[in-house]
Amino acid sequence: MKKAIIFLGIIIVLFGALAFVTNLSNSEKAEGNPYGKDSLDPATIDQLDDPLYQNQILPDELDKKLSKEDDAFVYFYSPTCIHCKNTSPILVPLAEDMDIDLKKYNVLEFEQGWNDYQIESTPTLVRFKDGKEVDRIVGTQTEETFKQWIEQNK
């Protein structure tokens, strides 16, 4: 009985240490991130170094851009969305090839984006011209479909 209690105590200490190290690791990764937040969802942390998910735009930055009546292509996505994970490898390189400054808006970290921009599902690509939405394309598409859509909205 005494050995079982000691063994159980060791197990509890090990799990506690593991949880502490995991939290510490996640908070270190969250420091200096492009989201300006102290803590991030683990799915977002996994994408911090992924070249497909650079060029983030924060809600305040997008608000300023649109209030100045600027133009923008904004890709609303979630790191937990399987359709986004399938779309990003198609859309992001295509936008680069077409010389489009594709801003990425993470609706997992900034949930207000759902309501602020009437996003019903991800992925959603929105074209803003003179600060106003002029077109959007929703869901997983072929490269050719995205290419035609971008050409129409350049």
UniProtKB/TrEMBL annotation:
Matches recorded under CDD domains: TRX_family (cd02947)
Q: Name one GO cellular component term.
A: cytosol
User: Which InterPro entries does this one have?
Assistant: Thioredoxin-like_sf, Thioredoxin_domain
Is the NAD keyword given for this protein? no
Domain Thioredoxin: start-end pairs: 13-154
An individual GO BP term = cell redox homeostasis
Q: Which PROSITE patterns match?
A: THIOREDOXIN_2
Work out whether the entry's keyword set contains Lipid metabolism.
Answer: no
- Keyword set for this entry? Disulfide bond, Redox-active center
Pfam families according to UniProt: Thioredoxin
Q: Name one GO molecular function term.
A: protein-disulfide reductase activity
Which family does the similarity line name?
Answer: Belongs to the thioredoxin family.
Q: What is this protein called?
A: Thiol reductase thioredoxin
Organism the protein comes from: Guptibacillus hwajinpoensis
